Amino acid sequence: MKLPIYLDNNATTQLDHRVFEVMTPFFLENYGNAASKSHAFGWKAEEAVDYAREQIATLIGANEKEIIFTSGATESNNLAIKGVYEMYAAKGNHFITVSTEHKAVLDACKHLEKLGAEITYLQVGGDGLIKVEQIEEAIKPNTVLVSVMYGNNELGVIQPIREIGKLCNGKGVLFHTDATQTVGKIHVDVLADNIDLMSFTAHKMYGPKGVGALYVRRKNPRVKVTAQMDGGGHERGMRSGTLNVTGIVGFGKACELARLEMESEAKRLSQLRDKLENALLKLEESYVNGSAEHRLPHTTNISFKYVEGEGLMMGIKDIAVSSGSACTSASLEPSYVLKNLGLDDELAHSSLRFGLGRFTTEEEIDYTIHCVTEAVNKLRDMSPLWEMFKEGIDLKSVQWSEH
Amino acid sequence: MAYSDKVVDHYTNPRNIGTLDKSSKTVGTGLVGAPECGDVMRLQIQVNDVTGMIEDAKFKTFGCGSAIASSSLATEWLKGKTIDQALEIDNMDIVEELALPPVKIHCSVLAEDAIRSAINDYRIKQGLEPLVAEKSHH
To answer: What does pTM read for this prediction?
Structure first.
């Protein structure tokens, strides 16, 4: 077993060697511009892009013409939200989204508010999930778009996308989903889910960084977004810029591998995740954050009460995870996603997110269980809060000197 | 962010973790910070009421590595000092000793607050006036 162990696969994933192999010829030999229509270099690049587009479309049940290449999911989210706002300005200016979305969605919405949009931010329940009735109640005659993420990056919880898609379809409202963490992990079908626009990216599914896609539905309804960059009118006029052929080729291969392997992978990873989770929940006062039922197979987010997340990460330095603790961010604020679950700041400070992946082994999980258990026990021995808890003191009754 | 070797050393081998009898008249206890801020330090001193010398110091900290190291270092420095000498410990001395980066300066401030708070608790127990000039960095 090689150290350190990587359990931060919701941040990014290791490039699959099989993906790397299909990409290599496109660095040095096949360097043509896919938009060059007049010579063999361009044709070869275009052919490779077309093939990748098909591999990608097949994974999500789309037509290849519905795939718009971008630089990644952040750009896809921006293009979807700002592009719909501009394109459908005549229809209305009301958008509905959820408070636990990724910043790329929330900040794009905030940007639109400054331009005159009206945004409804729905609150999730304690399990991190939104109810379809909340969306139904929020829809108004001037509602243009509902944007709800598929699987949450911090918690892994899966929103009721199919029900939301059905609702939006019936109401004539466009539906966008940020499926960055979901595509390639579990089966996603844009037709069955009634998705109109969907953001996803290669580097979360063992593909390269710097390439993503926005699915834009072409039929029932035909959806268009206003381009957010001016230029050569690539990607059916929705996203200008020379295509990242090498990246796209890798993205295509990553989607093909995901399509063939994700079912067995999801099973394997959920077993490993459950093993990790069950072992760590044996520690007193540890809790899973978010719904354990509606969840991606490879993610778990656990709070270890009375232990601070960053201090804990320092104690497990051979294991790469991420924490909702304030200290890990420059803002000194704990994770807004965890706070939105109604979690005490204290519990939010005490959380770790484990993101398993294709290259995670059982041996690594066993080692992780051992290290985390040891570190939590060590830090609790030096935690004044743990001592007070053990003495039966209600921490809420203590007058803290906030600083 | 990489931690300095000294922070890692204090985190890995914390000095003087523990609890003194907070009901004793010769023990001063300082509890500073708040759980929702992600930092709570409890620092205790055992004072010889004849010589005014700090004979023992213990801490427990909920917080990041820098917070743990700051309080661990503070207990090391406190032992063998008089109350007056202890009051001279400045948070910037801790910053310097542990090579704390700017985002971690608040950990040293908290440690200094904990020292002053423990001394105050001791003074009150001894029937003395609490220190008025609480240094405020906030």
So the answer is: 0.92
**pLDDT tens figures, A264-293:** 999 999 999 999 999 999 999 999 999 999
Contact between chains at B38 and A314 (C-beta distance less than 8 A): no
Q: Same structural domain for residues A165 and A221? A: yes
Chain A stretch 319-348, residues whose beta carbon is closer than 8 A to a beta carbon of chain B: 325-327, 330, 332, 334, 344-346
- In the annotation, is A109 catalytic? no
Identity of the amino acid at A230: D
Mark residue B127 as left, alpha or beta (left: phi above 0; alpha: psi -120 to 50; beta: remaining).
left
Left (φ > 0), alpha (ψ -120 to 50) or beta: where does A14 sit? beta
Q: CB of A176 within 8 A of CB of A95?
A: no
Helix (H) / strand (E) containing A82: helix A73-87
Which domain CATH number covers A353?
3.90.1150.10
Model confidence at A235: pLDDT above 70: yes
A382–B64 C-beta distance less than 8 A: no
In a shared domain, residues A146 and A172: yes
A214 and A270 part of one domain:
no
Convert the pLDDT of each residue in B26-85 to its tens digit. 999 999 999 888 899 999 999 998 999 999 999 999 999 999 999 999 999 999 999 999
**Residue A111 to residue A114: CA distance in whole angstroms:** 5
pLDDT at residue A229 above 70?
yes
Which residue is closest to B30 within chain A, CA to CA?
Answer: A401
Residues facing A352 on adjacent strands: A302, A323
CA distance A307 to chain B (A): 6
CB atoms under 10 Å from CB of A53, counted, come to 23
